[in-house]
Amino acid sequence: MPRFAPLLLAGILSGCQLAPSHEQPPSPTAAQFPSEYQPSQGQAAASEIDWRAFLQDPRLQRHIETALQRNRDLQIAVSRIEEARGQFGIQGADRYPTLAASADASRGRFPAGGAGAGRAGAAGNGATGASGGSAGVNERFSVGLGISAFELDFWGRVRNLTEAARAQYFATIEAQRAFQLSLIADVASTYLAIRGAEARIDLAEATLQSRRDGLRIAQTRFDAGITSALDYNQAQALLTQAKTELASLRLTRAEQINYLTQLVGGPLQEPLPSPQPLDRQIEPLRLDAGLPSELLLVRPDILGAELALRAARANIGVARAAFFPQISLTGSFGYISDELSGLVSRDNRTWSIGPSISLPLFDFGRNRGNLTVAEARENVAVAEYERAIETAFREVADALAGRRYLAEQVEAQQENVATLQRIADLARDRYAEGVVNYLQVLDAERNLFDAEQAFIEVKRAQVQNLVSLYIALGGGTAVPTTSSQRDDTDPALTSGR
Fold this sequence. Notes:
Strand order of the largest sheet: 1-2-3-4
Order of helices and strands: HHHHEHEHHHHEEHHH
Distance between the termini: 35 Å
Radius of gyration: 38 Å
Structural class: alpha+beta
Shape: elongated
Number of helices: 12
Number of strands: 4
Largest sheet: 4 strands, antiparallel
Helix content: 55-70%
């Protein structure tokens, strides 16, 4: 006990707050995003743009709206909020005394000759009270109010339990917001993968038809003896390549459609709005990354980690309070009478009050172990908070790098497709003139097809990266007040008190 005497004195002088004060740990990341990614060339903050304004495709909007209504995992997250709210209400009620009203009426008969008969005669209807007397009937009526074992929270134990429950409740709200952002990102990513696969399927089907025409020409030339069987087989190989790629793309599209159906909680009712091409999927405004410190105010995963840290620190106060006496108060006030008509009168008034104190003496290290656990959990919460900041910084930095370098890649790939198209046209012309063999046409056609497929894929990756940047910067939901700004005016808090 002497070891904790300083804690006792400090608690009394500071209003008996034994929990450590909450301070945000220093940010483990750089003060700014890398300048090479051009983070400050945007026009708007992602947190100020609603997802419906950012994602332009009406069909994608329909999928996201449905997912936010029907996704099972999101429904679980919402239920977790209600559970945490209920727990907070339960814990918050312990800060105030529980007042209970009671009323009681009893009527009993005692046999003659017993001690009960004597008592009945003294308090009942005038029956004989001596031993061996006649039987008696006893009546007793009472009404009252009582307080049962209300803890006087001198050391802040109940207050810190309430603060921990409050922080955990808000943390579940942030967890739900984080999952909602993740769901929007997953639906958008899957939808874009489907749109990319459909664009590649259209290209593969057009290429397949072109190569069927080429195979018929090769068959005609071979039958006429103009070309060898080698040229014919090479044309057949081109056709087979297109068939193989088309089947693979159709499988990819089918798998992505199945995953999207799961994300939105089932198939959507037809008809659906017409989709937009890949280059018209999102708002053309460039997003301003701002400073990494701004992520602490808009990213729900960071806000949730900070709230978990608040709860861990409140639990330290709970563990420290266990070393000090626990004082409870029990009281009652009411009326007791043998006659109902005169129950509520001054002469029948009764009251009682009974404080009790419990002081831990020998617990074989239980309280000290609980304090060690609470302090260790605070260290874990600090590390998780810092990890959340580092993850947010990396996600934004990756998306910023993708915004710059994917744009360069799209431009280069577009030039590559144009160059390979000219090469393929030239190879076909030279083959028709008999200058080159069909192997050069085969190589040129194959290279062009691969480049066109890659161009569609890199355009999809560019749009997907911009969506990732939007989500990483905290876009997608309205930004609530920060954890430090919330107070007891929240309806969820007042309803639990």
